[in-house]
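Batch manifest, entry 17 of 40.
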Amino acid sequence: MIGEYVREQRNKVNRTQTQLANEVGVSQSYLNLIEQNRRRIGKKYITDFAKRLKVTEKELKENNYIVVDSPQRRREQNIKLKKKVKDKIEKQKKELDLLILETEETLVYLKNARKSLDSVAEEENLC
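Output type: structure tokens
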């Protein structure tokens, strides 16, 4: 896809988006859309982009395509997102279970400490 290709080549020639856009004569936002795979390079800019990126026009044209978002791709992204959310929830549940266990152990300890104090007080006839 054009976005990854342009970004990679731009980094190889050590240019920022703004620098490359200025050199080619396009806006930085236009170049940003290209790098996000939301736009192809217009025919009138192919030569300038190729020259500034130090690639051939043929190479640039071969990579000058974008993948249109399809229902299948959206479903796959949705599945990945749901899995990520599910994994995060599972991790948080485990962390909470550990906190509950630690809290229960602390409560048992505190109850036993209270019983010990009650026993000591009773033995000393302080109560």
